[in-house]
Amino acid sequence: xxxxxxxxxxxxxxxxxxxxxxxxxxxxxPSEAVLILSGIAIIWSVAFxxxxxxxxxxxxxxxxxxxWLWGGSSALFAILIAVGVMRxxxxxxxxxxxxxxxxxxxxxxxxxxxxxxxxAAAMVxxxxxxxxxxxxxxxxx
Amino acid sequence: xxxxSARSWRIIAALGFWVxxxxxWTVGGxxxxxxxYTAGAWLxxxxxxxxxxxxxxxxxxxxxxxxxxxxxGLLISLALLPAATQPGVISPLIGWVADAxxxxxxxxxxxxxxxxxxxxxxxxxxxxCWVGWHVSKR
Lengths: 141, 138
Fold this sequence. Notes:
Oligomer: heterodimer
Shape of chain B: flat
Distance between the termini of chain A: 29 Å
Helix content of chain B: over 70%
Number of helices of chain B: 6
Number of domains of chain A: 2
Structural class of chain A: mainly alpha
Number of domains of chain B: 2
Number of strands of chain B: 0
Distance between the termini of chain B: 29 Å
């Protein structure tokens, strides 16, 4: 089978490959190399996601749009509420502070906290998107 | 009030949200946080009203912009992380958020700033795409 004949889901898996392969090595590889490799993984992911999108039929595209609109935005809203609760409830942020302090031996705690905030928001949004995407298909099967 | 157009609901949503956010930032602390939550609830409630009154053309613009604009905003935010995490850029911003939240440790405001950075990146991407969509369709 040539790459031109691959189905859309195969392109999606290919798009995620480098980013997922990088995860186990984040703490081993020097941070400068992680940044460069992350950049390459993002460009790779965008390119293959575009190829996947072009091969999708209309219902599949509608599922992605609905998933991102409702799941992604609700999840983003939820994480912004959660970080507020973390600030308001005494001691709620302590486990996170300890975790980030343990992670930031090389970097200032603030810088690491910022990166974790970014990653947490992006990951929660991805989970919300995937959940809404599953619900969309569940309703139509 | 029930006859207001989608655009009117959108303006009410955006104006109220930003006014409340500025008030929350000025007040700071737990009261500021409560006002920020009110701003979020305000935005959600009035945006849903606007969504329900929109025609399919407008809904398509919003969906398309949130999907592609939001996604590219997210990716550009991630790509700009090396620049955003430079000590000269991030330290004053964390200090600014820490003052507003009256936080004792540097981690919590940094985490909040990180989550807000992602939301803001997507909002910018969405806005650019939304304007571009309307310009290209008129």
